[in-house]
Amino acid sequence: MQCKYIVFSVIMLLCVYLNNCKTIKNKSETLFNVQDAYYQSWVARKEENGTDIIILLINVQKEIKFDSIIFRGIQLPVFTNDSNGVVTLNSMLTSGLEKIPMKKKYVNKPDQLLYYYQGTKRIFLLNNIRRLNMKYK
User: Fold this and answer.
1) In terms of DSSP bridges, do strands 120-125 and 23-25 run parallel, antiparallel, or are they unpaired?
2) Which residues touch 49 (CB under 8 Å, ≥6 apart)?
3) Rounded distance, CA 47 to CA 83, Å?
């Protein structure tokens, strides 16, 4: 009898712990829809090169605050532009001589978008980011 009580208590504590987790992955509620997601490498005057990561979103809930993108294991800040109902998220991974240094953090995680909704940090996995041909500036 006492063993059942201990097992029940452990299960309840585990449920409470998991319920209070602050990062939520791809919840079933639709907070936005991905219209397109792509990346494009570029070269500028032989000294500088990099990759632009672009994500186009529609039907975005107003309460969402986008934080960053993880692309190929590197976390990068994201810049947001809202135009005619399409929210464009842009991030840049630079290498070589950097005229504009970008804050980056190396993490061991898959491609994903990090954002806040109602004070809770959430993750949206980016499974199908397509590659565009290289651009020369």
Assistant:
1) parallel
2) 41, 42, 43, 94, 95, 96
3) 33
Give pLDDT tens digits for 63-94.
Answer: 999 999 999 999 999 999 999 999 999 999 88
- The tokens for 117 are 């909704």
State how far the Cα of 118 lies from the Cα of 28, in Å rounded to an integer: 16
d(CA 30, CA 96): 39
Question: Which residues are paired to 49 by β-bridges?
Answer: 43, 95
Q: Sign of the C-alpha dihedral, residues 121, 125, 129, 134? A: positive
- Tell me the whole-structure pTM to 2 decimals: 0.74
Q: Find the helix or strand (DSSP H, E) in which 15 lies.
A: helix 2-19
C-alpha of 107 from chain center = 12
